[in-house]
Amino acid sequence: MYTDSQWQAIYDQGTNLLVSASAGSGKTAVLVRRVIEKIKRQQLSVDQLLVVTFTEAAASEMKERIQNALQEAINEETDQEQKNHFTRQLTLLPMANISTLHAFCSKVIQRFFYLIDLDPSYRMLTDETETILLKEDVWDELRETFYEENQEIFYRLTENFSNDRSDSGLEDLVMSMYNFARANPAPFDWLEGLIENYRINDLAESELYQQIIRPQLLKSLDEILQTYQWLISDSQASEELQKITDLAQNEAAIVQQLEQLLAANQLDAVFTLLEDLSFPTFPSPRKKEVKEAFGEVITECKEYRDQAKKNLLNLKEIYFSVSPAEQIERLQEALPIVEELVRVEKQFIEAYSAAKREKSMLDFNDLEHFTLQILQAEVDGKRPAETYYRQRFAEVLVDEYQDINQLQETILQRLSNQTNGNLFMVGDVKQSIYGFRLADPTLFIQKYHDFAHEDGGRRIILAENFRSRKEVLNFTNLVFTQLMDQSVGQIEYDQQAELINGFSAFPETKEFAPELLVYQKASETPEWIEDKSMGEIFMTATKIRQLIDQGFEIYDKKQKAMRPLQYEDIVLLTPTKSHNLTILEVFKQLGIPLAINDTQNYFQSTELRIMISLLQIIDNPYQDIPLAAVLRSPIVGLQEEELAMVRLALPQKEYYQAVLRYAETQEDRLAERLKDFLAHLNDWREFARREAIADLLLKIYNETAYLDYVLGMPAGQQRHANLLALIERAKDYERSSFRGLYQFIRFIEKMQEKDKDLGEPPTEEISDAVRVMTIHGSKGLEFPVVFLMDMSKSFNVQDTQRNYVFDEKLGLGVKLLTPDTRVRKETLLFQIVKQKNLNKLLSEEMRKLYVALTRAEQKLFLVGSYDDEASTYKKWSKAARNESVVLDAGLRNGQRDSFFDWVGMTLFRHAQMDKYQTDYVVNQVAKVKQHPATFTIDFVEPQTIAELVQGYLPEIKTLELPQGTVNIDALKKRLLFEYPYPEATKTTSYQSVSELKRLYDDPDNRQTMDISENSMTYRFTADALNEPKFLGTLQDASPAEIGTATHLVMQLLPLTKKPSETEIQELIAELVARKTLMPMVAEKISVASILQFFDSEIGTYVLQHAEKLHREEPFAMLLPADQLFKDYQNQDEILIHGIIDGYLEFDHEILLYDLKTDFYTPEREQQLLDRYRGQLHLYKDALEKAKHKTVSSTFLIFLQGNKAIDLLRTPKP
């Protein structure tokens, strides 16, 4: 069933049609139905239609829907001729022109390439790797040519846009300029047009002033005057405030005078008036009784005055910081620099095109430009390609029309019939959020206004929303009715734009009102809430747990019934990916399954940075930082102290030479590890010279087991996928026209420099999980429950902070560098373009907010943070005096505003907020005050979050009350019972010797280990029989892990005779082959130390009595707690367990020994004895109790120092 406006969009014809389809209005269904009706009623063939989509995915979905509709029509049709017609359309559908514009352009070029003498055997330059490197190579070569020309103007150009460290600033400008120029149908004409605004002799008579500057100035002055009028209205509340009224009226008169001067084009007079402008001190009343009676009014007046003053000074800074004559001088000074820039840019475009032509390559932009050239190409005064397509296509249908640029618009106009109007455009300018791709929403907006009067076409508005509950729609309307207009948002959110509820099956309930969740700072905040962002994330996670645990229900459109909410019904929408890793960690702690990609920047992830560093030193080992990074990484595993020792080997040379020197001159374990690494490095370097990069990476992964290692790290599956993706990226790179490891590294570095990145590769999908995606990624999707995150994040205006700014229509604005002072001066054009870009940025941010809110089907949460409730409402209250429905532009276009500021101001004017409004700021706009929207605002403090988090720890089961009579006295006795031994609660009843040995670090300090009261008690990990790390995938072996591996070798060595080095090495190799030990751990076992042990007196004695030897023998025993911990007064016992390295059991006595791999020196001997004395004492006690024999010797054996010490014969100091 379709609405009247949908039927109109399906059937109207005879002219160009623009369908403004609001979110959830079923535009795709309408587009498909229009195609089907064209086939049915007009007997058109599907190949007579051109359907342009924004993405390949959208094209595939469109084809699938048309296929299903055709199949349904075949099944229902009784007329055989018509059925044959439908069947033929199914056959033609796979080859139909339903695709992206790029894909269609490729077909045009393949058919008509000869019209522009284009080689048809080109290949597409689709890989960003190759594109960046090719552009950079072209620029490097071209730049050298410019330097060789030795022209002063080029040096001035370079200096103007570069810094003291490099001339890369000019390169960045050239690349940005290229993108803007190529988005235009006539790039060279657009470039030439940049120069015209710098050729101004009379500012007042210039087109720049008349069409751009004066209208904007007058509009801004009107807004300032409105602020003064509010100030005057407030101050007239009492005669006691007359001085404030007088001040406001005087300054308002100056604003009116400025308007009159501007209208008369008297710019010098305007400059003089602003130059002499001064602002007297605000006349706050001194009388105590006046302050008490009118304190809030006085504060409000001062805020209005401050706002008006700020805005007036801002206008002065932008347009009249210097005199009009000085503005002209700056523009004329910049003229030769801009002219040189245009010359350089033109040559770059030509050189880059030549480089692609030489390699028989085209990029996506070329597809569009060559298509336009083909359509414009004339043969004998006619345009054969244009004629062909205009005759072939009965209609051209364009989806997401709001996201096209001027070049694409020109192509569509060439393809469509200009006489009869067969262009069908559908989109929603309120959802135009691709400005970074140079989408031009003004193309849609212009037709939206023109077609309203049937000037060149007809406008159809689809306002009914079939996606969301009325609570979501009403809330969205309340917000955007006040926020969006032509000044901010670029389109009026009037009655025609408001969303209308089109789905009536949702059950009526009050539970679906949108909620604002506001994290509120507090003096006492748990240390595990590190900042406001983390507080917001914890607040969101606990809210989700509440919804799930309390059985919150949503309506299932398929089942046509309410059902419990599931995790997969929920999405978190984020402005950026910057907090994704924190979201992942917090949700994991609270047991919430999460489906999330791009948790962090791909090239910035630890495992990728290590591999890139390794590739850098394979290419060139004389790079200190990458070399140190690899040596410190798990691949080699050096400690910081060891890195310092290497540095000392050759302090004044490159670090690589120090590594070589240490490996050559030293004979310790560190030197052995360095030699081993250098052998691998040389092997990899040799391999890299003759083999592919992908094969090199695979070889490194295999030889280092690094792939296995990262699986054991947090987010191991993602890290594993990242490393595999690097291999695929290398394969893609080597399929390009570039080769070699150096170029590959250079590409990655360039990506990092330009703050570009690759999305992290997806891992295995989790079925029932909360999803996380950016607002851009959510466009076109819908979700039952939406949490819009990070609402308090300030808008990013960094793009306006550079030394140049672009606009498709105004052109280029530049700053001028003064060579002597190194001070940059802003040209008038720079200020104008910058202000326009700020407005475009805010407009796009507003449209992003619209996209985010309209993703929600049923429940919407808006998450942000403020310092406290009172200051929040005070900030929002600035909107309350607004006398029109739409908020004053000055309240909406502040550079530091956020989504929360915008939304909060619109809500504050609603009747629900009356209790927070003072008498003098009560909102009187009925449409806003009585709006049917409902919402809740919940300020959440950290302590509340902490209590909720604590509640999601493992639950304690409640015991049921026993049957029968309750003995009250007995119950009280149980409830009031105090455990007589509280110290026993501070340790566990089960201890390992390795845990207990810490008690013996200081033998006289055997007291209970404190449990930090500030610890993150919400973090619990279940005990598990985990595989020992040294048996797993670890490469960065710690001393403890090397020790465990050494003990394993000592346990398995056959002792029928003295082991040889070969036998020990063979055993280690066998353990590695059986995957009992990993190679990187096995290599760190000191074979020399083991051999020395069996050469020692105690080792020889063990060999002589090997038949009496017990190795790695486990034991367990109960030990009174007061023997371990002082201050214990009870008789509790603690179970002790451990493994004894070895002992010789004779008839009446036992010789006990324990092997240690600690680094031994005589200076450390006493410290080591103190550390292990208690541990050996426990072993001794355990053996004596179990064997009923005396332990006559307890040897502590340090393998590294070949030292054996009998503790029974070494008195305690």
Automatic annotation (TrEMBL):
<keyword id="KW-0378">Hydrolase</keyword>
<dbReference type="Pfam" id="PF00580">
    <property type="entry name" value="UvrD-helicase"/>
</dbReference>
<dbReference type="InterPro" id="IPR027417">
    <property type="entry name" value="P-loop_NTPase"/>
</dbReference>
<dbReference type="InterPro" id="IPR011335">
    <property type="entry name" value="Restrct_endonuc-II-like"/>
</dbReference>
<feature type="binding site">
    <location>
        <begin position="21"/>
        <end position="28"/>
    </location>
    <ligand>
        <name>ATP</name>
    </ligand>
</feature>
<dbReference type="GO" id="GO:0033202">
    <property type="term" value="C:DNA helicase complex"/>
</dbReference>
<dbReference type="Pfam" id="PF12705">
    <property type="entry name" value="PDDEXK_1"/>
</dbReference>
<dbReference type="GO" id="GO:0008408">
    <property type="term" value="F:3'-5' exonuclease activity"/>
</dbReference>
<dbReference type="GO" id="GO:0005524">
    <property type="term" value="F:ATP binding"/>
</dbReference>
<protein>
    <recommendedName>
        <fullName>ATP-dependent helicase/nuclease subunit A</fullName>
        <ecNumber>3.1.-.-</ecNumber>
        <ecNumber>5.6.2.4</ecNumber>
    </recommendedName>
</protein>
<dbReference type="GO" id="GO:0016887">
    <property type="term" value="F:ATP hydrolysis activity"/>
</dbReference>
<keyword id="KW-0347">Helicase</keyword>
<feature type="domain" description="UvrD-like helicase C-terminal">
    <location>
        <begin position="495"/>
        <end position="780"/>
    </location>
</feature>
<keyword id="KW-0175">Coiled coil</keyword>
<dbReference type="InterPro" id="IPR038726">
    <property type="entry name" value="PDDEXK_AddAB-type"/>
</dbReference>
<keyword id="KW-0540">Nuclease</keyword>
<keyword id="KW-0547">Nucleotide-binding</keyword>
<dbReference type="InterPro" id="IPR014016">
    <property type="entry name" value="UvrD-like_ATP-bd"/>
</dbReference>
<keyword id="KW-0238">DNA-binding</keyword>
<dbReference type="GO" id="GO:0000724">
    <property type="term" value="P:double-strand break repair via homologous recombination"/>
</dbReference>
<dbReference type="Pfam" id="PF13361">
    <property type="entry name" value="UvrD_C"/>
</dbReference>
<keyword id="KW-0234">DNA repair</keyword>
<keyword id="KW-0067">ATP-binding</keyword>
<comment type="function">
    <text>The heterodimer acts as both an ATP-dependent DNA helicase and an ATP-dependent, dual-direction single-stranded exonuclease. Recognizes the chi site generating a DNA molecule suitable for the initiation of homologous recombination. The AddA nuclease domain is required for chi fragment generation; this subunit has the helicase and 3' -&gt; 5' nuclease activities.</text>
</comment>
<dbReference type="GO" id="GO:0003690">
    <property type="term" value="F:double-stranded DNA binding"/>
</dbReference>
<feature type="coiled-coil region">
    <location>
        <begin position="52"/>
        <end position="83"/>
    </location>
</feature>
<dbReference type="InterPro" id="IPR014017">
    <property type="entry name" value="DNA_helicase_UvrD-like_C"/>
</dbReference>
<comment type="subunit">
    <text>Heterodimer of AddA and AddB/RexB.</text>
</comment>
<dbReference type="InterPro" id="IPR014152">
    <property type="entry name" value="AddA"/>
</dbReference>
<dbReference type="InterPro" id="IPR000212">
    <property type="entry name" value="DNA_helicase_UvrD/REP"/>
</dbReference>
<dbReference type="GO" id="GO:0005829">
    <property type="term" value="C:cytosol"/>
</dbReference>
<keyword id="KW-0269">Exonuclease</keyword>
<comment type="similarity">
    <text>Belongs to the helicase family. AddA subfamily.</text>
</comment>
<dbReference type="InterPro" id="IPR011604">
    <property type="entry name" value="PDDEXK-like_dom_sf"/>
</dbReference>
<feature type="domain" description="UvrD-like helicase ATP-binding">
    <location>
        <begin position="1"/>
        <end position="469"/>
    </location>
</feature>
<dbReference type="GO" id="GO:0043138">
    <property type="term" value="F:3'-5' DNA helicase activity"/>
</dbReference>
<keyword id="KW-0413">Isomerase</keyword>
<keyword id="KW-0227">DNA damage</keyword>
